[in-house]
Amino acid sequence: MTRLSLDALLVLDAIDRRGSFAAAAEALFRVPSAITYSVQKLEQDLGVMLFDRSGHKAKLTSAGQLLLQEGRALLDSAAMLEQRVKTHATGWEGELRIAISELLPFARVIQLVREFNELGAQTELRLTRENFGGMWDALIDGRADLTIGAPDMPVQGNLYCREMGHAAFGFCVAPSHPLAQAAEPIPAHELRKHRIIVLADSSRTLTPRSASIQEGQARLTVSSLDDKINMQCAGLGIGFLPLQHVQKPLADGRLLLKAVEDARDPVPLYYAWQTKEPGQAMAWFLQRLRDFDWQLL
Prior knowledge:
Elements: H1 6-18, H2 21-27, H3 32-46, E1 51-52, E2 59-60, H4 62-89, E3 95-101, H5 106-117, E4 124-130, H6 134-140, E5 146-151, E6 160-167, E7 169-173, H7 188-191, E8 196-199, E9 219-222, H8 225-233, E10 239-242, H9 247-251, E11 256-258, E12 267-273, H10 280-288
Parallel strand pairs: 3-4, 3-5, 8-9
Antiparallel strand pairs: 1-2, 5-12, 6-12, 7-10, 7-11
Helix pairs in contact: 1-2, 1-4, 2-3
């Protein structure tokens, strides 16, 4: 059993912040002797000196400074836990974990979170980015309570989901790439000769998915959509890119849009969840997502 208590850490913190035992006693509404006793008992329980009392004013020893530094983190965590418990009791979740698709423009994610913040709710949001099947995997595996922008339909799991729009894709190459001068539409056998930049599926338990990759085609795999775009802008490979994310490089000439024989159809996107009776934070997101404008092309 630990010999530390939150109250002892609170006393130590008050002494350091107020500058003396007497001032700490006043701040904590206690008598000075109670503060002195708390410190002496803590030193006895730990078997270390926390204060150097050789001078006119007691000062923290190095052990005391370490305990105070780490102890403040514990006090902060305890305060956060207390707030989350109180929040949960009101029907608002203490934490809501949301997996966000790389296909969604992050500026719109910021707007969605801003609107939630305006509610003044104390629910802590934890946002993660996932790719392809990783969106469904995060939900099924319990890493997320809500996924936004999951492509296609789930392959398993007891999930609730609603369509939220479609992501349009275009085949893009850099002006320096050999296919920039190719006649259109470019046939599949010509594409196979060139390295494709692949955005890795972030699934951990589901079978990873991939799209538009031909058998035997050389590939370069990256972990983020930004990396994929940058690789293709550098002429290091080819591939389909979500048009919403490449308007600027297309406009300034860093990328060219090329027609191919096997064009990629727009991909339906979904938001999904598992909880049959969601808390108030989840309920707000589910209601807001019904008509939220993601500004997808």
